[in-house]
Specification:
The structure is a single chain. By secondary structure, this protein is mostly helical. The protein is about 80% helix and about 0% strand.
Length: about 270
């Protein structure tokens, strides 16, 4: 079941990347680059007529280069992965609103009853049984039935929750890589733009500064877009981490309130 989940996540990430590339490139080819070229031609013509003319910054011109296109593709890819994990987190949180063990106030669970109380959890749909809360409850009840120790139950719940926290943290590696790669791509655009500007320095000496200004625009625009996109991705990433941490803590509290405090060990077993 875990292996199937890993494969489905990989397939989702691959298709999300492919769709992001297709959609963003189509928008660039059909909308952004044609409009950017038209605006730049218009501004160049007006500057030729009026040397004092100062053109307004256009979003199409700022977004037109390949570095910005790559940053937008990576942004949509990261957002699709984050969106999937947020959806799963919300589904797991819905289980915390249900009483899975059907316990009322004052009821106790003895070690020999552990298997009976496991059945409602085992009856959950296969997808829900893979969530953190059912795994923690089943692991705790199985340990209670075999060891008759409430301390062992608390230890099992803590271990399962800690393992899940580590797993959730490791699954964010690809998103962290994207968040690191976006500013790097922006700096690559900066290096490319400055290099092109230096290559046209001889034309600027003779009075033609159009090529230099366009190249410097590539340098600064790519860095600007990359930093803005990186800030957005990091905000979403930290919000997702906060939700995952809350899920683990809420699961531990759920087990404390709805399971551990109902456990009871007979006095003979305690003495033994």
């Amino acid at each position: 079941m875990k292996q199937q989940g890993i494969i489905s996540d990989f397939i989702y990430q691959v298709f999300a990347l492919i769709i992001s590339v297709i959609v963003v490139h189509a928008v660039y080819v059909a909308v952004i680059r044609p409009n950017a070229e038209a605006i730049m031609e218009q501004q160049t013509a007006q500057q030729a007529v009026d040397p004092d003319y100062v053109g307004e910054r256009s979003l199409f011109v700022v977004m037109k280069d390949y570095e910005q296109e790559t940053c937008i593709i990576l942004m949509l890819w990261a957002m699709s992965i984050i969106g999937l994990k947020i959806t799963r987190n919300r589904n797991e949180n819905k289980l915390l609103e249900r009483s899975l063990l059907n316990l009322s106030e004052g009821m106790s669970i003895l070690p020999e009853d552990a298997r009976d109380y496991s059945r409602p959890v085992q009856a959950l749909p296969p997808d829900e049984r893979q969530f953190l809360l059912p795994r923690a409850l089943l692991g705790a009840l199985q340990r209670f039935g075999s060891t008759h120790s409430i301390t062992d139950v608390a230890s099992v719940i803590k271990d399962i929750c800690n393992t899940e926290a580590d797993r959730l943290e490791s699954e964010l590696t690809i998103v962290r890589y994207i968040a690191w790669a976006i500013p790097s791509i922006g700096f690559l655009g900066t290096v490319r733009g400055i290099g092109e500007a230096l290559g046209q320095a001889h034309r600027a000496v003779s009075g033609d500064i159009v090529g230099v200004t366009v190249s410097l625009g590539v340098a600064f625009n790519s860095t600007f877009i990359a930093l803005v996109v990186s800030i957005l991705i990091m905000f979403l990433l930290y919000q997702l981490q906060l939700m995952q941490d809350r899920l683990v803590l809420d699961t531990q509290n759920y087990c404390d309130n709805y399971l551990i405090r109902h456990l009871q060990v007979p006095e003979k077993a305690e003495q033994a």
